[in-house]
Amino acid sequence: MTAAASTTEPATTSPADALAARVRGLRKTFGATVAVDDVDLDVPAGAVLGMLGPNGSGKTTLIRMLLGLTRPTAGTVELLGCTGADLPAALPDVGALVEGPGFHPFLSGRDNLLRCAAAEPRLDGDLRRPVDAVLERVGLADAARRRYRGYSLGMKQRLGLAAALLVPRRLVVLDEPTNGLDPAGTRDVRRVVAELREAGVTVLLSSHLLAEVEAVCTHVAVLQTGTLLVAGDLRALLDADAGGVVVSTPDVDDAILALRAAGAPAYRAEGGVAVPPGPLEAPGIVAALVGAGVAVWEVHRRRAHLEELFTRLTEEDA
Ligand SMILES: Nc1ncnc2c1ncn2[C@@H]1O[C@H](COP(=O)(O)OP(=O)(O)OP(=O)(O)O)[C@@H](O)[C@H]1O
Question: Where is the signal peptide (predicted)?
Answer without folding.
Answer: none
